[in-house]
C-alpha cells in the first residue's frame, strides 16, 4: 500500500492503556490480507451504523481519540493522505442534518453523504469508513469546499431522497457483480460520451451533484442539458469533453437498498474546442484547460436500471494519482 497514515498522537495515547485492555485490543486488530483471500469478520448493518455515529460524534467534538481505531489506518481527505486528526478535524463546525447513509456488511464498510460547516461556509461531504472487528481501518473523506472548486453550484438543497433510502424486496435485489456492471456502464457512457449507452436508465432517473439536481432542472445554467433527463442527456452526446474516467473503484454495495458506491477521476485534457451533439448542433466545449474531477458517486438501482444518482466531486490537478491505487475491497 502506497499511502498508509500511521496514527501519530493516537499511538502515544494507546501507550497509556492498561496492559490487559491493550492485549484485547491487539487481538481485535487483526486485519485480513485480501492477497491471501482472507475472509472478513462478520459485521452487520447496525454495527456499521454505530461505528459511523461514533465517528461523527468524535468529528463534531474535534476529538479523534473518541474513535476506536485499528493499529494502522489509511486516511485521506480530498484525495490526499493525511494523519488522523488533521484537515477537517481541526476546522469542522457543524455536521449537518442531511443523512444519506448505507452499508455493506460483506466488506465491512459504511458510507454517508451529508454536509459540514467550516467558518461561514457549508460544504457537501461524502465519507467512507471501513470497520474491521469494530475498529476503523480506512477513512476516505471528500469535502466540496466551493471556494476552492472550479465550478460553483448555486441553489444547493440537501434533502431526504425517498428513492435512495428505499429498501428493496428480496426479489428485486440484484447480484453484486450485476450491480457493479450498471455503475461501470454509467462511467463508460460518460467517458467520451458520443450518444452511445453502456448502461440502462430508469424512467424516473434523476441525478444530484454537489447538492444540486442536474437533471430535469432548466435553471441549472452551468450545464445546458440539465433540463433533460438522465438518458436524454447522454443520448445527446453532451459530455464529449470527458476524456477519461479512470481509477474506478466500486467500493461498497448495499444490496438491501440497491446502492453501489463508486469513486474515480474524470480527466479533462481541454483540447476539444467544439463538437456536435447527436442532433447535429455545434457546441463549444466548456472545458479548455487540463484538470480532473475526483468523485464519489452513489448509484441507486431498481428495475434493472439506474433510478437515482448522488454525486460529490471536486476539481483536482490534471491526472492526479490516487492514494488508493492499491486498494482492495
Attribute tags:
six-stranded mixed β-sheet; Nuclear Transport Factor 2, Chain: A; 329 residues
Radius of gyration: 20 Å
> Roughly what fraction of the amino acids lie in strands?
25-35%
Question: Strand-and-helix sequence, N→C?
Answer: HHHEEHEEEEHHEEHEEEEEE
Q: Write down the overall geometry.
A: globular
Q: Which bin fits the share of residues in helices?
A: 10-25%
- Second-tier CATH architecture of the largest domain: Roll
Give the distance, in angstroms, between the N- and C-terminal Cα atoms.
13 Å
Q: Could you explain how this protein is built, in words?
A:
Helices cover 19% and strands 33% of the residues. The strands form 3 sheets. Strands 2-1-6-5-4-3 form a 6-stranded mixed beta sheet, covered by helices on one side. The protein has 2 domains: 140 residues, Nuclear Transport Factor 2, Chain: A (Roll); 155 residues, Nuclear Transport Factor 2, Chain: A (Roll), CATH 3.10.450. With 329 residues, the chain is of the alpha+beta class. The protein starts with 8 loop residues before the first helix and ends in a 13-residue tail after the last strand. The chain is built from 7 helices and 14 strands. A hairpin with a 2-residue loop joins strand 4 and strand 5.
Describe, in short, the structure shown:
By secondary structure, the protein is an alpha+beta fold. It is 19% helix and 33% strand.
List the SSEs and their pairings.
Layout: H1 9-14, H2 19-28, H3 45-60, E1 69-77, E2 80-81, H4 88-91, E3 100-104, E4 109-118, E5 121-132, E6 135-144, H5 162-165, H6 176-190, E7 201-209, E8 212-213, H7 230-235, E9 244-254, E10 259-268, E11 274-276, E12 282-284, E13 291-302, E14 305-316
Parallel strand pairs: 1-6, 7-14
Antiparallel strand pairs: 1-2, 3-4, 4-5, 5-6, 7-8, 9-10, 10-13, 11-12, 13-14
Amino acid at each position: 500500500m502506497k499511502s498508509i497514515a500511521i496514527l501519530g498522537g493516537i499511538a502515544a495515547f494507546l501507550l497509556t492503556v492498561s496492559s490487559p485492555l491493550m492485549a484485547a485490543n491487539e487481538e481485535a486488530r487483526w486485519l485480513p490480507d485480501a492477497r491471501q483471500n482472507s475472509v472478513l469478520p462478520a459485521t452487520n448493518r447496525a454495527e456499521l451504523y454505530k461505528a459511523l455515529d461514533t465517528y461523527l460524534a468524535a468529528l463534531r467534538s474535534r476529538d479523534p481519540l473518541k474513535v476506536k481505531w485499528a493499529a494502522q489506518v489509511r486516511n485521506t481527505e480530498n484525495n490526499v493522505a493525511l494523519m488522523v486528526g488533521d484537515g477537517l478535524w481541526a476546522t469542522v463546525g457543524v455536521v449537518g442534518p442531511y443523512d444519506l447513509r448505507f452499508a455493506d456488511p460483506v466488506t465491512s464498510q459504511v458510507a454517508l453523504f451529508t454536509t459540514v460547516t467550516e467558518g461561514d461556509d457549508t460544504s457537501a461531504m461524502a465519507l467512507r469508513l471501513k470497520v474491521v472487528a469494530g475498529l476503523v481501518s480506512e477513512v476516505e473523506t471528500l469535502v466540496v469546499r466551493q471556494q476552492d472548486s472550479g465550478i460553483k453550484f448555486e441553489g444547493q438543497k440537501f434533502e431526504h431522497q425517498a428513492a435512495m433510502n428505499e429498501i428493496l424486496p428480496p426479489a428485486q435485489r440484484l447480484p453484486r457483480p450485476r450491480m457493479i456492471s450498471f455503475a461501470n456502464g454509467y462511467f463508460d457512457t460518460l467517458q467520451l460520451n458520443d450518444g452511445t449507452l453502456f448502461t440502462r436508465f430508469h424512467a424516473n432517473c434523476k441525478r444530484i451533484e454537489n447538492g444540486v439536481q442536474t437533471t430535469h432542472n432548466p435553471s441549472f445554467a452551468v450545464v445546458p442539458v440539465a433540463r433533460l433527463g438522465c438518458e436524454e442527456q447522454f443520448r445527446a452526446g453532451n459530455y464529449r469533453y470527458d476524456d477519461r474516467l479512470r481509477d474506478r473503484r466500486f467500493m461498497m454495495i448495499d444490496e438491501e437498498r440497491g446502492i453501489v458506491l463508486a469513486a474515480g477521476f474524470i480527466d479533462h485534457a481541454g483540447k476539444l474546442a467544439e463538437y456536435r451533439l447527436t442532433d447535429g448542433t455545434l457546441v463549444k466545449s466548456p472545458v479548455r484547460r487540463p484538470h480532473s474531477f475526483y468523485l464519489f458517486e452513489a448509484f441507486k438501482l431498481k428495475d434493472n436500471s439506474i433510478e437515482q444518482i448522488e454525486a460529490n466531486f471536486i476539481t483536482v490537478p490534471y491526472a492526479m494519482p490516487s492514494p488508493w491505487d492499491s486498494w482492495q475491497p
